[in-house]
Amino acid sequence: MRDTPHQMPEEESPDAIIARVIAAEQAKSQLRLLTCGSVDDGKSTLLGRTLYDADCVYEDQLARLFNESRGRVPEGDLDFALLLDGLMSEREQGITIDVAWRFFETDKRKFVVADCPGHEQYTRNMATGASQADAALLLIDARKGVLTQTRRHAHILALMGIRHVAVAVNKMDLVGFDRTAFERHAAEIADLAEALGFTDAVAIPVSALKGDNVLTRSAAMPWFDGPTIIEWLESVDVAAAVVRGPFRMPVQWVSRAGQDFRGYCGRIVRGRVRPGDELMVTRSGARAVVARIMPEYDLGQAVAGQSVTLVLDRDVDVSRGDVLAAADRPPVIADQFQAHLLSLGEAPMIPGRQYLMRLGTDEVPVSITALKHRIDIDTRAHLAARQLAMNELAVVNLAADRPVAFDPYAENRDMGGFVLVDRITHATVGAGMIDFALRRAGNIPWQAFDTAPDARAAAQGQRPAILWFTGLSGAGKSTIANIVDRKLMATGFHPFVLDGDNVRHGLNRDLGFTEADRVENIRRMAEVAKLMADAGLVVLVCAISPYARDRALAREIAGSHPFYEIFVDAPLTVAEARDPKGLYAKARAGKIANVPGIDVPYEAPEAPELRLTSHDAPAEALADRVLHLLQLGRTLKVTDN
Amino acid sequence: MTVIEAPSRVDERFSHIRRLEAESIAIIREVAACFQRPVLLYSIGKDSSVLLHLAQKAFVPAPLWFPVLHVDTGWKFREMIAHRDSTAARLGFELLVHTNEEAARAGITPFTASSAVYNHAMKTEGLKQAMARWGFDAAIGGARRDEEKSRAKERIFSHRNPAQRWEPKTQRPEFWHAWNTRLAPGESMRVFPLSNWTERDVWDYIWIEGISLVPLYFAKPRLVIRRQDTWIMVDDDRMPLEAGESPEKRSVRFRSIGCYPYTGAIDSTAATLAEILLEMRSTRMSERHGRLIDHDQAGSMERKKQEGYF
Fold this sequence. Notes:
The complex is a heterodimer of chains A (641) and B (310). Chain A is built from 18 helices and 27 strands. Chain A is an alpha/beta fold. Chain A is globular, with a radius of gyration of 31 Å. Mean pLDDT of chain A is 86; it is low at 1-5, 87-91 and 442-446. Chain B folds into two domains: 12-209, Rossmann fold; 215-309, no CATH class. Chain B: Residues 38-264 form the Phosphoadenosine phosphosulphate reductase domain.
């Protein structure tokens, strides 16, 4: 009992009370927290206990907690894990849950908690949650200490740039609250934290079941003088770090309100900005001074985390994908860089294949130019690899179609973290973190020559073009291309047949027939075709090219040259009966592998410029259809004007 | 009881509510920038009102440049429709209203169909029809992750196939703020800028920003009847009264709003926003308190803990 009753102002109006209450709410900052560890470590119990102690459990959940705890835990205890269930049944239904979000608050802070279920997709899920988190709470079992799994979790946290980590050494009640056991684990955790570069790492002995050192200090462990879980969560300082450092704002949207107003909208991801600051526009390098910030806040400046609209003092070319940056400390601008890449998709990621990169608000095609090594997530060992399966992590070199602005991920997560999107399915297939630029843009500029492509084409009397024949081995690609070649020659054009088999004797003799090698094979053939088209030729490419993505890449590489995808379509039975190179016989006999149509797929084009069914018409007639596609050569003729 | 102290000098720009606001505005701007034909779904309730306010803020000083869609079941409270129309007139946005006329003609009403059939026809199908009618490729909605367990795992950008179905297998992992907004032809996106807000955040924000709400949230004498342990408002003469039912005037308010035959009111005299917020906070506490003392187990657990360790 209190000696004196709590003093309340006598006639305080509802408005005054609520104004006071909400002012207190507004003074609370937010922490986004990732929890990791398996159910066996008591993660759900700890999280449930935290929600319960913080008085953030809804009525229906509370009723269930009391009713269903009986028989699950010793009489008198509550099974706090009940507050967090619901994921299991969904998992059984095959629904992918990468992160489940929880909310709770204390008198000082509000928490948004990313809770990742631990199962086979764990790496991907934890990385997803960590990308949204300011800090992490990692659980270990006091009886077991630091396990391989603990190292894996810590490694993913470090990789994702989490610097603030509390390790809850749970189930201290089951080791008799033994100080020596805890200190042994704590020493191991300190070593791990140092190796992984956590700036703020603390080990806390807890019993989630009994509540020791969660919200209330443990009476059973008076020897521990560090923070409780809640004390630590309330004191982690994450705002200061993003406000320090050079100003960055990726432009999301250009606001045009009326004729005179141009505002650049975006969320500030680093630093602060005031009217009068000089900024650089990353794509053009143009500079301008901030004239106005909207909305207008106290002190006249805006800081990291805020969504604002900036008005500049002069007309400069700014569009979505640009970054407005501190002019004296601009970001790196480069088209080649090294990154850590986590593979998320069902299909393996392969060097040479093109993806769409989403970095900040910029979107640009990129391809993996080198897979330097894979990293074992448990041991951090470097392994050789030619492709990257789902949930695998690697260090890669990437080349973008044009320069992009970034900061290394270690310095700025929003400026250095990107996702890769599959160009056909639009699925998110990779998440990457840029380490550093390999080559600053402009170091190897394009050499400009005096003879323009138009002049070269005029000298040849034709417009260059690329005719890309795709289809199964034995479908008739080379036969048809050969006739087209002959007929074009006969009418005064300059064609050339680039045949896949022939190219493999020279330029591509280092390549085999795995998916990764096929990607590189097609990339090289497409580049050579482009050079030949640049030289003014009509290029007829014959290549099985079984993957739709690679043909799409070939089309991209062709650039402004007309590109005709010609699908020579023959049923496998027909192609196999022809078997001009004996491939199918060898494949059926088990002597060779990776034969499209037999043991690897052939992805038929969905919308080719021309589809030829080679089994029900003579090759001459099919060749005529190709010529007809070119309007009997008219598209190839240079018109006089 | 917790003593609420005056706030310290924490910079308001770093506050919890401003971080949520900034994130929501960024999401709304992303929709504007990345989709051909976005729309904001407006249900006239408090979450929608917050969403609309954020959308306005996202584009100031330009007006909200994408339309606002209300899927009207035909059974909304009259005060909702009045509030909707006055809000549209005041803020000057393009308001689109769609009703599943086919279902209405087929005689589906709250009084003739089961709630599952009625809700599917008037709400789910109504929305799908509207999406197709205007060719929207992104719809911004006010759902929150704290609403229920199944929402806790929802993405901010939730992908829908050409049949507008949610396919668990194709939901995309979301990293940082690098949202994947790509769509194949016919696909669409549902976008939830309030994902990380809690119900309390929504109410606090309404207070802080002075957002106007439909008057149904505030207590006043209304004509009601007692059904299934709640007060149902007799909003118009389409409401069939059963034998022995006679409407009475009581001071009530609504905690959530929707179709009037399905929406229960509570007894209350809280007629201002401050009074509602006070009532909500105290109600929750006393309900909690009551439940806790019912369960002597809780007390014994605390006792055992004390006994064991002291």
